[in-house]
Every structure is written in structure tokens, then in C-alpha cells.
Amino acid sequence: MDRVQLALSNATQTHALEIGSGVLDKVPQVFKSQFPGKKAVVVAHAATWAVAGERVDTLLRQAGVETDASIVFKDADMHAEWKYIEQLDAKLSHTGAVAVAVGSGTINDITKLCSAHQGRPYMVVATAASMDGYVAFGASITRDGIKSTYKCAAPQAVVADVDVLATAPAGMTASGYADLMAKVPAGADWIVADVLGVEPIDPTPWNIVQGGLHDALSHPEACREGDPKALQALAEGLMLGGFAMQAYPASSRPASGAEHQISHMLNMDRFVMPDGQAPSHGFQVSIGTIVSLFFYEQLLHTDLSTLDIDALVMRWPSLEEQKEASLRMFRKSDFPTFAAGEIEAKYSSPEELRRHFEIMRDRQDELKSRLRQQLLTVPQAIGRLKAVGAPVHPRDIGLGREQMRATIIRSQQIRRRYTIFDVAVRMGTMEEWADRLMSSHFA
Ligand SMILES: [Zn+2]
User: Structurally, how many domains does the chain consist of?
Assistant: First the structure.
């Protein structure tokens, strides 16, 4: 079974996926088979209406699908903000039609959440290979300045025509490529959690994301140039990341690790570039991926057989001390107590900590060989991210040195997921490794 079929057969919410050159023509067929007898309404932005929305609308009508007047947003700098949720809710509440979202992150997320508000399924026609959220459940929406993930079902059907994806702005494809590369360190985080007995690897979502990942990442220049084969592999890889989450409802662990924490931290701190816009998800994750891969290189360079386990356990702060430190760290933020809760959720008792270090010491060869097989080196990653046009230095997204360093240190605290950052904190090397990165690749 190929990965797409494996993914579909394990998906709980998405039942149809078409990726390939020319598959836009299949939209009516997919719609009719998934939503028999239903009316359709195309939801798009002016830009995505021009590249595919109008054609989708016409194809549906020609195929005899009853279709409401399409809903086309016109704001030039439209983001996934609550005001659009209110606008689309108002429109959808006047029709029983199934929404056909034509777009990428923003259009998909608002259609996903509004369809859920109406108690209806929906489908999406992708216009850019820009992120892995197409078939993820949950929509990432900014409300009152705070970006959160709202619970809602993934699309029931997805159509991604590679010829359409090829027309997307180069920066969007570069974002998607970086979001796909993030699955490399994310997988390493799961390997560590698996070896330490913190969170065992579940083979099905693991294979959906990791099988074929390195192949899909091997042609960054071709992705940048819009080569159909490279884009197909990129789009499939991104879709599979979302499918893996459907196969692992516990969390986004299969597709997201420490590198995504960097992105979440920037979002929580409401980081914007000099132009007032937040960098794309993929561009944030691009920087996070380099951070995580660098931390893994430091771990691989450490001889774990010489760890002074007694000393490390002795100086491990108590839960109360850790929570107090966390409250001090986030005192001036919009979420002063949030991180303390996450720290508590993943706190290791001194006995657990000792056991983790003993495993790292006794199974060093196995751990390192699995990690080496999984990882890319930092220079490899930087070379490929540069080739696709993604940022490789904090300054590329307008992030200053101080804030970059602080983001690394703080991001360990904002999620209970066990990652390379937790290894570094427990080894007492978090600051040292961050400083080393700031004076080498991020100098
Ligand atoms: Zn992502």
C-alpha cells in the first residue's frame, strides 16, 4: 500500500484525496461522490478565485451541481482573523450548501471552522503547497490578537492540482518545503521520547509521515522552479503530515516537535517583521528546524557514557522551583501562568530523570544511530532551505539576536511535549547550546 492509501485508510475525517497534474477537473466528480445531492458554494479570495476558484465554480455548474453564488474575499492582506469567521458564518448560515474552499492556509482555516459552526462537512481545493494544515483537524485563527487553534473537523475531501500549485508565489512553496523539512527533527524528538519511554512511537502515523520524507525533500531547487514531480512529492508529504494527525488523535506529535515550538513562541509573543506582518508559518518553522537540528548535533557530539548522573540529578530543580522560575520568565507576557502548567505536565521526578540518563548512557549507540539515520546535518538543511528560498538566519525574518536567543530558551516551556529542548534542560546545556548556535550559524 502506498503512503497516500495508508493515510486515507487510517484517516477518520478525510475520505478522498486527489493530488496530481490536471486533477482540478475531478472536482465535480469528487464533490458528487462525497456529498451526493448537496448544493455547493465556492469560498475563495480574489487571488485564489483567479487561479482556480472561478474554474472550480464553472466545472461544478457544468457538471450539474447546484451552486450558490460564490463567496470571494477581497481584502488585500487577508489573514485568518476572527472578523472573517463572522463574515463567513453569516453567509453560510443562509445556505445549506457544502463549502468548497479554494485557497491555502487562510481560506482553508476559516472555511474549516465556519463549516464546523454550521455542522457541515466541506472540501478544499489547494492553491499552494505552503503548509501541512490542509487535512489537519483544528483551525488556527487569530482573535483579539491571540492566535489559537479551534477544534473542528478536517475537510472530507481534498483536491490538489500540481499545475495550480506551480502558480503559487515562490515564498509559499518555500514555506511548505520548510514545514515538510520540520518533520525531520520532529521525528528525532519522537525517537528520543520513544527510547526514553516517555512516548512510544506509534508505527502507523510514523510511517505515514516519515516513509519517503527524505526523498520528498531531496529536490529543493526543483520545488522552487515549480517542477511538477517535485511539487507533487512536496504536496503529498504535507498532506501526509495532516493525515498522520488524524491517525494519532492524541496530539500533533507525528508532525511537530521542538522546531514548531519556536514558531508557536513567536506567535504567542506576537512577533511581526518590520512591515507589521508575521512571517509565514513555514518561515518560522524554517528557523526552528535549524535550531533543533543544531541542538541534535550538540547531543550527538556529547559522550553520554561519561554523564555525571549523580551530579545532574542532584542539581535538578524541584517542581516548585521550576514553576517559580517559569512564572518569573513569563511574568510580563500575556500568558503569565500558562508555561508553568506545561512544565508541570512534563516534569520528571528525580527517579525518572536518573532512569532517563541511565538509558542515554547505556543505549547511547542505539540512540545515536537511530538519530543519525533520521537527521540532516545543519549545513545540509541550510543548503536546501536556501535553495528553496526559505530563511536560514533569524535576520532573514527580521528577528534580532536577543529575541532569537530568548525564543529558544522560552520555547522549551510552552508545550508539554518532550523534545530535544527538554533533553538540553535536563542536561543543563540549554543556554550553552543556544549561545553556541548564536555564535556560529546565527552569528
Ligand atoms: Zn507546521
Answer: 2
